[in-house]
Records
---
Amino acid sequence: MDLRALGESFIAMLENMGIPEGWVLLINWVLGALAVLVVALLLAIFLIWYERKIAGRVQDRLGPNRVGPWGLIQPFADALKLLTKEDITPDKADRITYNLAPIIAVFHILMLFLVIPFADKVVGANINVGVLFLMAFGALGTLAMLMAGWSSRNKYALLGGFRVVAQLLSYEIPVGLAMLTVVMLRGSMNLNTIAQGQGGVFGLGWYVWILPAVFVLYFVAALAEGERAPFDLLEAESEIVAGYNIEYSAMKFAWFYLAFFLNTWVLSAVAVTLFFGGWQGPFAAQLPILGVFYFFLKVFIMFFVFAWVRATFPRLRIDQMMSFCWKALVPMGLALFLAVAIVLKLGLPSAATNALLFIVNVVILFATLKLLGNYTKDLSHNKNKRLFAPELPRL
Amino acid sequence: MVGQILFIFIAVVTLLMALGVVVARNLFHAALFLIGVFFGIAALFILLEAEFLAMAQIIIYIGAIATLIVFAIMLSKGMMGRESGAYNKQWYFAGGAMVFFFGLVSWLLVKMPFKTISAQVPNDAIQQIGSGFVGHYVVPFEVASVLLLVALVGAIMLARERNS
């Protein structure tokens, strides 16, 4: 069964009913948008249960297990509880900005769902600048948290807001460099085209096999972009209580919570699309509905890894985190980008190019790890316990 | 028809936002209105089927510039949450400059014969923009990059700690 055909037959049905063409398009778009919206919101509710269960198992607990089978209904119960809670707005808060912030936080994530291909050509908007779209609307999240931090009139919220800008703007660079490398390899910014290019034998010709270091770069930076441990400095409760969302209660807090989980899901989906072939898999070309299954399977495995890391690692210090981005990830990303560009320009046959790309990736990955290892072992940096203390030239 | 309604709607909203930038008494609100203006312009680009420009508009103006403006306001002492009047002693200079520039732009819009081509947007428009940057327009592109680098170095020099 082809999902495209279903949509086209629906359009034909509306046209046969004598509805003018413009209105048919409008109805089709509104229904499509609603479908994406409902999927996204249901997904968020399931993801909360999924992450809590993973964290529970990793930390030798049971996780939610009281409401429904395996605690599956727990997020619904939590949502209902949040709905009945008192909605408190601080007296001095800047009301419009304060109320707008959670809306933008969720809006920008839902926009990202538009360009993610769930199966071949099953995508909200098959635009040619998909990767740029991800970067553009991803950046709106920074703004939402900044607005929340500023409008709350709370010093901890404001500090959280500062950290949002410092962290998210910095880590956007390695994420962008990793995406750019894949775009350069495929020669297209359309996410569906990028997924199509990873067919190969049995639909297993994924870019992660030839660009492992780029994937590692993306994954580490995505941990920070998704505000997840070990980079969850934005809401480090031991330092700034709860960060930008400290003054939010009830459903407004729930919106930020929702945005957080959907953000991680989108980051996993982008990782899957760019590096793990998206909907590609054995027999997905013959049976398109299988593509949807493969896509969600891969995304949930990727989400599991994100949750696993979060449940395992302790938090970094903010100066370590910033230095790690600017002194390790950004140079690594630039080196990878340059190396991949040179290899692609050599004009070798495709098998040799792929082999060379793999070698270059492994070499750069190990060089980065070796340099980082030497740096941390060198105790002369360790005097004031600031492992990455900045050394400025004296003038 | 639908396109025209959309255009009028987006244009009105964008203009109202632009008005908001000027009349907002709170600097932070003015910055937020400015973001709304950038967003409206991006929407107009999409209406013109210039997706790349729309995305570049959002990344550069909203993602980078507007966030930095907001950040600068937050870091400036005493700017947070302060209401400032829309008028000060220089209002007649500003008013004169505004009338002059408004006249200039209106005169240009009336006099200028705008060239339009009816050709379709080529499918590989993004590739053409890309190869234009590193091909025909490589010198201006690199000069702009060097300028940004100089600005970056200058900002670090101004902001660094001075240990005498």
---
Amino acid sequence: MKDWRYWLAEQRGTLLAFGIFIVMFVIYTSNHPAGFTANVVQTASNKGVLLAFVAMAQTLVVITAGIDLSVGMIFLLTNCLASWLVVGTPMQTTLGVIAVLAVGLLCGAINGAIVIYGRLQPIVATIATGAVYYGIGLLLRPFPGGSVNEDLADVLTGRVFGVVPASLVVLLAIVLVIWVPFSRSVLGRAAYAAGSSETAAYMSGVPIRRGKFAAYTLAGLLASIGGLFLTFFTYTGEAAYASGNSYTLFSIAAVVLGGVSLFGGKGSAIGAIFGALAFRTIGDLLFVFDFDPLWQPLFQGVILLVAVSLGAFALFRVRNRLEWFL
Amino acid sequence: MDGAAPLFRMEGISKRYGGVRALEKAELVVEAGSIHAILGENGAGKSTLIKVMAGVVAPDEGRMTLDGREATFASPGAANKAGIVCIFQELSLVPELSVADNIVISDPPKRFGMIDRKAQRRIAEEALARAGAADIHPLALVKDLPLSRRQMVEIAKALARKPRILILDEATSALTAADVSKIFAVLKRLRSEGLALLYISHRMNEIAELADQCTVFRNGRNVASYPAGSKSDNEVVELMIGREYSHIFPPKPAAVPATAAPRLEARKLSWADRLHDISLTVRAGEVVGLGGLDGQGQRELLLAFFGVLRGLSGQILIDGKPVSITSPSVARDEGIGMALIPEDRKTEGLMLPMTVRENLSFAALDRLSKAGIIDRAAEQRLIDDMVGLLAIKTAGLDIPVGALSGGNQQKVVIAKWLMRQPRIILLNDPTRGIDVGTKQELYQLMRKLADAGAAILFYSTDYDELIGCCDRVLVLYDGAVKRELVGAEITERALISSALNIHGEDSPVGLGVDA
């Protein structure tokens, strides 16, 4: 086989998610009253990147065969924090942004430490820490409110050169600065190896713990970037429990749509981004076709079910039935 | 050898797992530039020995020296750094990563802090070429490769780490003949480059071709060390035997007449590349053993009978009638009445957190219930019978089965199936990891069940058990029945020589061996 075919096989999940997204987005814009205009794209992008950041965060943890049920809450907590800190002079704003990102990093590091060194199951550990993060958010913002540096917010949610949505540019920059180096570093490979077969990785002398710790920590950072953007869009902070929970669950859906295996070791954050954008577009599609918004959860569920079923076909090829349960 | 410190030495190494001693004051000397073969039967301590060397397990006592200096390895990574690289029997490859990723996994080449993929590719291609496996594409995912190719990747990975001591644990077991000869050429070249190689294999012809020095292990001790070729196959087998008989077996009744109709019969069973044309019969009242080295298809054969494998070819007959067993629940049904005591009771036999009572009734629930409602009184009666019959020691029926000792857990697994009064009982190494007292009870029970009319097919890695319990033993090698031993023919010598696929009792060295 030629090199490119191996590359294609490896990227299949990502490409599939990309394809699903493009098809849905084309249907969406072609039926939109305004059509494919900078405005429509900007609005879609601003809605989509929030879930995209949270889904990237989820990807990092899922790759290690874990799951992070606190990403939505880190997203909320950092939103509440940003509505206090990201204000004032450019200098104060900068420090505020750094503080918010540092808190996200810390939340992720706490998750990682509990899972790796405390040897707790990720699902339990992150439900607990998620509740804690939400609790802190609630103390910070018992009622919706606060403000944000509007100049910065407008730049980051506006358009570059009048056409390209700035939020998309930031997303791309984050992919280049965080995801690409991580996935190509020794730690990233350790995270993949630990997710695929922890025993084999251990036997090969791979730094499993450091790899997993890096994955959880960066997940916290990515979720906090999402939280910042939420603040830029809404100009306020709000500890909205239901919203945090749905971000967590949608991030898992986006990751699965994006071809990331929940068993670990396989997939890419880029796939998850397209998964997130596609998932968001489902809602918009219903809008342009004048469906009652009440239909949205049902349709999202059906699309998700179809997408994950595609991945289950491999089970038909298993010859030893005991392998079904591995 | 004369005065100068050897490259590597182990002295007085002991290791216990619970009450089982895996190594008892073992000694080993490894010289540079030679191939050292380690021999011994199942459970002789070979695997533990190399796990100690490779930093996977820490010894309880004893010391190791490398270049005359004391060495301890806290992890496989530490042993690798010291130049000791092991190719394990259970492959240590990460399935979702590519071949190249795997080959460089312990120490990937870096550029600007990131993994240098071009350099990685180059290293991988070189290593694959050195291992004689240039046909494997470095970008292929390991999980997509067949077992024999994976083993070649494993060897390439070891070579890429530039070892000083290379340990091969059954590294050729899944290879094709062509690959084996390539690997042999590679190993001989490495020897001439001054590496020390430890070679663990059950294939006598491979050892005859490769080894300079041999060490035989038995019961966790090294019992003999000798230059290769200085002993005949028979003398080697003699050295490997010689364990004390520590178990008491029930007397065997007169053989079931060969004319009796078989209860269970297989005709030319084949599956994937693991089972080849296996034909056998088991009659009611008979205990038939499955012998041979670990992993020669015994487990797959039992799974095939029990309806777990798909794409099985050949025929299974029960009481002379062909049947199609498509799942374990078909296998256990009235018409067939089969039970399988699995190898791993923790995952395939029991639900550890559930109670003893629940575990016991699982397999028999359909018999104990009417219209979906469990008849609690009938359940209790049957459970009481079983607990009594098997003398299960438990503080109560409503405690989690995970709280029982290993031996009692195994009794629960067996009792669970006996509640259905099976006519055919398949046992997959049922005494592994349980205490001697319980073993004895199981031997008695097996005979009692056979006397009551059950047909029993019994796989064991313990030769004593096969000798003590079985009316007949089928020895498997490479997924095929190599030999059938009946009655007095079942001796340790016969079992070992046929397990190693040495024909006849007195074949001279190097003859009559085909792997």
---
Amino acid sequence: MKKHNLVSRLELVNITKQYPGCLANDNISITLMPGEIHALLGENGAGKSTLVKTIYGVVAPDKGDIIWDGKEVNIKSPSIARDLGIGMVFQHFSLFETLTVSQNIELCLSKTQLNKIGDLAARITQLSEEYGLNVNPSRYVHSLSIGERQRVEIMRCLVQSVKLLILDEPTSVLTPQEVSGLFGVLRTLSEEGCSILFISHKLHEVTEICHKATILRGGKVVETCVPNEETPASIAKMMVGDLAEQDAGYAKREGTKRAFNVENLSLPAKQPFGTSLKNINFELKSGEILGIAGVAGNGQDELMAIISGEDERNVKNSLSLGSLDIGHLHAGERRKLGMAYVPEERLGRGAVPDMSLTENTLLTHSDGFVKKGLVEWQSIKEYTSALIAKYKVKCHGEFSEAKSLSGGNLQKFIMGREIGQSPQVLICAHPTWGVDVGAALAIHQALLELRDQGAAILLISEDIDELFLLADRMAAVCDGHLSPVVRTEATNIDQIGQWMAGTFINNSSLHTQEAKA
Amino acid sequence: MDSDLIVQILFAAVKTGTPLLFIALGEVICEKSGVLNLGQEGMMLMGAVVGFLAAYGTGSAGLGVLAAMIMGCVMSLIFAVLVLHLGANQVATGLALTIFGTGLSAFIGSGVVGQTIQGFQPIAIPLLSDIPFIGKILFSHDILVYSSFAMTFALMFVVNKTRIGLTLKAVGENPHAANAIGIKVLRVRYLAVMFGGVMAGISGAYMSLVYTPMWVENMTAGRGWIALALVVFASWRVGRIMLGAYLFGLASIMHLVLQGLGWSISPNLLAMLPYVATVAVMVIISADKFKEKLLAPRALGKPFDPRQMA
């Protein structure tokens, strides 16, 4: 970080933005120096997203000034922001699924930038190797997993020469190795004089990499600190404003009887670029949380789809619930038998965006609230409001459309809805992705409570800390293979990390695979 | 069947397919930007009547085409302001535009019904038209047919090879993301809709200046609707639209051919062919979810309001 340069890269002066019913930003002032990595912290709804969108020209502030390199600027649109040298990686990715990676990146570049780069695909491959992002320029985005898409977004900013890079929770779907790779990139950029505005919920990351941090609460700046002089716990306190218990180790439990079983499950990939599942075996017991770690795109989506019944192929004799074979049943029948799911995609899979929360509750609770073919609206409404209150879902009420909720709040709602079924088996993917500290804590507690009531929980997550925190037993997936399952106390991050990289796949099984192919 | 007859049939198929080609090329660009304009028939009729009036008044078919293009563009602008600026429902507005165009064209054209004019004359392209078979089928037409060839290839290039094409697809697929990376979504959509209008105008002019050089009320006879089906049939690909237009053209003259051969099949049954083909293609496309995702513009028919970004 260059100290001698006294002109700030970006200065926000008294930025204020009022939304109907909510003051999103209240007189926020922040200064970023060239080369500074600045963390923007706060719970969901604290106003971080609004603030960065203001900087990126997506949202127009009601009041306040933006000073860029010492000059006042009016960033009316993202293209003006990009011309100034501001790049942004969004939390909800802004990629075009029907275009290739390289076309997606091309769209963000101006003609002069393109001419300077020359062969864009080659440049992407080169940057990809340089930073270890593993981005193939010719693939279509719709075939990429969430983790891969995020890497495309990061690539999109790297390809442009940026002076300020805004990252909205960039590490939430990366493996520990990828995160350290990304941090390497960020440090290099910082040394080159690029300022970085970093939004994250992972506090140890903030203390590791950021030079300064601004903490927002309720749309206001409540604190500014130097993260490496603080601990994650002290920063968390500033964020939530009270003494929230952060990551206290939870008691591990031993499961009782077998609740759900996967036996010799092999399944060819349905989609091009999908992952085939290769002879997966595991047992899930009542009263335990089984965590499955893995880098995005190693078969988690496929496993989830076949277990939930969303993938309708018949896998008779491979899936059983208790002693009942369920491999041939469809998703609804499996739900009726006491299985519940929280998919990775909240909007679209976990909830219908254009439907109200009440209607979304009804989707998976139809049994209790439909009598003689008629919907009992009054009781479903009451149930939904109770759900909203219990899980502290921030919304206007049970009539709010699912898409109007922030990611973390919608996740709390979906978790609450599924847990409310008192399932025997809960299959849950990335339950706290993009969720703030307070909400994550609530979700963790709900999961543990459900486990203690005797439910079997399968937790698929890319957040390895979360898995160590919650899971009683753990395994990892790599390229469609499942590692051995071990007790969490009996393993460590290194072993799981290695399994995520596939070291458990022994050569003999690889050979037979190749022989078959 | 002797080869002369086949050549004649195919020549007629190209001629019949040309208005479909023009209007479907306009519509596909419009739909790629995410706007469904069901007003094609209305814009085409207005183009036909204004084109005819202008050519009748000035004696110049070229000026007729120009006037039709302007008229089509004006019609599409009405649509664009309503659905893009004021956020009106695209389907309802499009239907209203068709009804409006049908009525207004009948009204302003009532004075010239039955009049004839000198339309475009065929120009055989030297050398190319001497190629046996193909020369007669493709290169002995009038200037509008040739310009439809040129337009198809130009659009194939623009859509598939240029940044304009990428931008268009981006806007039609995810307008919010497009807005976030700095593409002016509404401007792109305005231009796409206006392009659709201009093409509908030319298509109408082709009907009243070349195909049957006269004005008759409702003379486009549902071609605007066939064009909408054609876009789906071609699964939003420009190259396939050309192929599809000639196939549809062939299907719609088939009853004449078959009558000539002495077969008696009801022309009404044969007139169904383009629609049956479209339904078949839709079934084939949607059988493969993976392909379906790649083909149709995902934001088709969905309004975009930049002020609602939060």
---
Amino acid sequence: MDETIIAILRSGTPLVYVTLAGVLAQRAGIWHLGLEGLMIIGACSAVLGLVQGGSIIVGLGIGIVLCVLASALLWFVIEKLRANPIIAGLGLTGLGLGGTDLAVQAIYGSQASVNAPHGLPRLGPAFGEYGVLSILVVLMPVAVIAVWILTRRTRWGLQLAACGEHPFAARSVGVNPARMRLAALCLGGVLCALGGAELSMGSLQIFAYGMTAGRGFMAFAAVIFGGGNPLGATGAAFFFAIVGALGIRAQLLFGERVPPDFLLALPYVATVIGVWISGKLRGGAKAAASFGELRDY
Amino acid sequence: MIGYLTQVIRAIAFVFIALLLCGVIFEFAGFSAPLMFQSIADGAFLSVRAWENSLRWGLPLFLTALGVVISFRCGFFNIGAQGQFYMGAIAATFVADGLNGAPAVLVMPLTFAAGILGGAVWALWPGLLRVRSGTDEVITTLMGNFIAGLFLVYVTSGPLKDPSGTGQAASSRPIGEAYRIAATSSISPAIIVIAVLVGVGMWVLVNRTSFGVLSSLAGRNPIMVVWQGARLSRLGLAGFVIGGALAGLAGTIEVLGPIGRLSSGMLPTHGFTAILIALVANLSVLATAVVALFFGGLAAAGLYLPVLAGLPAAAIDIINAAIALFITARAWPKRLTGLFGSRQDAG
Amino acid sequence: MTTGTATALACRDVSVNFGPVAALADVSVNFAEGMIHAVVGQNGAGKTTFARVAAGIVRPDKGGVEIAGREVPVGHVGQARAAGIEIVHQSFALPPSFTVAEAMEFGANGSGSLYTRRDLERRWTRHLESLGVRVKPRERIRDLPVETQQAVEIARALVTDARVLILDEPTAVLSPSGIDNLFERLKVMQANGVTVILILHKIREVLAIADTVTVLRGGKLVEGPTSTAEVDAARLAASIIGSTDDILSETDRDALVGAAEDEGKETEPAHHAGPAILDMRGVSTRPDPEGPALENVALTVGRGEIVGIAGVEGNGQRTLVRALSHLADLTGGTITLSGVEVTHHPLSARRANGLRVIPFERNSEGLSLSSALWENWSARALLRDGVLKLISPARLRRACTAALQVWDVRFNSPNQPAGSLSGGNAQKLILAREVDDEATLIIAAQPTRGLDVGATAFVWRSLREARDRGCGILLISSDLDELFDISDRIVVMLSGRINGEFSHPYHLGEIGAAMTGADR
């Protein structure tokens, strides 16, 4: 049982950080499909920073700076160049995947993955079996609550929500929606850097090309599933993590009888079902509003 | 006409900006940007062999991109071309492999039908979820890509596995020689004919039928066509299914043609590139043909770089991604508007 | 000119251009403190732009704004609010998913602190009570009736110490008694020292409440601020409309500027309606996303008859139009069009039967703004003829050009996007599509909203001509003057039900009472 909980926490924590970033963007009115790219930049920087710079702090710092810069670039393209957020987000994801691949190849030649000498600081043996969890797992609930307070219990949060829902209302009380979106995206960049670092340095201590494997998109689905509420979205993220962990369990139980690829597909299937249910509950997708280029209302 | 010209110029300008950004990234990563671009041009366009390669990569991309054009014109963000491409390839391989030995006149039509159907079905379920219960198609088609990718791994290492396989990636048995429409890694008249026929058909559909006008109205403003009495769900589903079918057709062509077998993890960026082509071409069928050739060239260069120039192929992914980042931009930044054109309204 | 008191708000040489259009040209005006000022003009005269410049939302190309004698940087909402100016928008500007308390909080000055839900509700309940707004702070904005929404919006504007309150066409959405309540509330505020600037377009209302009146026409200041004691309705009407007597009858002109008498007068003899073209019996629907459910609605429209639907917005008018267009779910009743029961027929079949719809939202439901004129124009015909038919775009473009010329649309090319047309021309494009020879029932939902005098007169003339050809017309409008002027019969809707039917001569008092349910 403990093992399963640890597995769920380990696979769920990176997802939750990135989901929170998605929640912030969602409330500001941006459909953030660049999460995947930001996450892998965070994962790559943590490992390369540790290996090259010698310190986990350097790795985290580089990751945060790069993710914030990339978020600001996305903001510029969406807000100032009025690009379609979905396509621009996918572009950012591609830049993240390609850029990290290039960085690894530039340093290590054609090597496919980079091992780190050690991971993030752990809780330690005082916590028994749970001692293997990294500090970012412990900080995760703090981040969730902080984002919840920020978005649901402060005037800033209300203004952010107004920017997403009714930008004119925000403008007419003197709030600058563009600036609010920049803040939300950059804050999300920090969270993505942490999520990526936890992914590569929390339990694995390795960076491999494309290791995010769609987690950023799953986080985006969790945001929609959770209806833009940080708590709901966190719940959705953990739901995906649990499905994933159960898949691995099932693999141990059934062994050869079920092809492993089917079990690996479970989180993706769960995501589809989750989005379908939330669509049913809320009476339809709202993606239309972000069609930008191709739609005119 | 002038409006059209500005659009073209703007598209080219933003592609240029994207390439600049790529140059910065290359330099930052320690590669020489001029050398990188020179090698890409060599691999893509600067020899007859390069042009053949560009066509080899460009034509399947053209077909998939046409599918994206149709479904985007209908107003649906079907970004599942990759999965639909895989499912088409898988279905085609099942038929061609299962009927191996039967006469080609029987097997070929069935294989193509299976491939087209495979892609169409993989687009149908997100389409149904979208029009029936309003499930966001961006997520479902994206997840469909991942699921199809895993399914491809499963069939190539399971039911269709080539027992004599030695390569790193699992793959199916080679397609029987009798059913091949092109030699390995090359282009053939058959593929060109298919691409031209489909291209003409789609041009007529988009530019010379009611469907073309109504779907583009629906894509830009679905509410308006509903008030005109259109059944949005049918238009939308048609868009999804045509998009999937064309991606499936491209998958079939790859399996029967240049690749000659199904292999796990084949062409992992095919769908994304097709979306880019459609957007750079501003959802016009004619422009798609030209743009597909350009991106086909980039794809060809992606193979050329590591083998002949000793440079990482990731450079091509970065170029594609940077273009995606900028291509849908509709405005110059405010400070530049004074130089380039009219002011945005203040409201 | 009012002199002797301090100036609350002064605008100096304000000019605003939207693209090639001059929305405001060199407007200079001073508003005295502690009064209720009216700014009037036709649609498109620049009233809203003027209000937004004063509130800092629109940055003028030229000119300055002074509040209480101090220069305020233009185009800066924060500074304008800090100087004490607040605005209530015509289509309200509160996020619909917010609760009342949240809507109050998000616009308050400063950065605020952490709050709990209960804190927030307690704090703002007091504020709302002090203004006499009866609403639960937990209710969501989207669930509030229009009049309460407006009261909340005004309360939102008063969370800071507003010295100048601008209301942009606040009466457009209210019932006659709602307007009276609003005016009472404004007088209380005036007594508390707030300067009120009302954007209006009805002379009757100006004379009922304002101390001074200012007239804008075509973006220019025509007169004012003039004390309302010194003007009469006729002079004001002339000054609002200018010299367009040639296209307007006297009753039309009075209807346009809201100068018609309170008591109904005998106008042209009522039309004799022919056999029913539309016959709705006992129609009920599910609650609709855009309004309350219909309950047991019975309604007929005869050949050659204009039936007006009156009612405060949000009382089921949208649901009615959607039910007639097969876009709302019926739970009971029957709908018959020209003798054919169409209760379960889709909109395409109803359109084939002669139904035409000019929907409420010109820019989203009526047109695709980014699509070409010819595509918008030909949509109805293309759908009628089937989706897989081969077409010739060149021929459609020519046909579109010819049709738009007949309908007097100002355009350059059939390829230009519909979004490049002015509101009036856009509406004419919709008319060109919807008013054809095969039409038998035309639903016109707010067909003149936001249009200038010329375009409004054009729409009225088109509807009357269609009636004279034998069409039945269902006209939904929230402008009673418009309904009184051109309807042969008026039906009042309240909460999804039919609450009264009236024929000539109309009395504002009776119909107003039916609109609010005060007649029961």
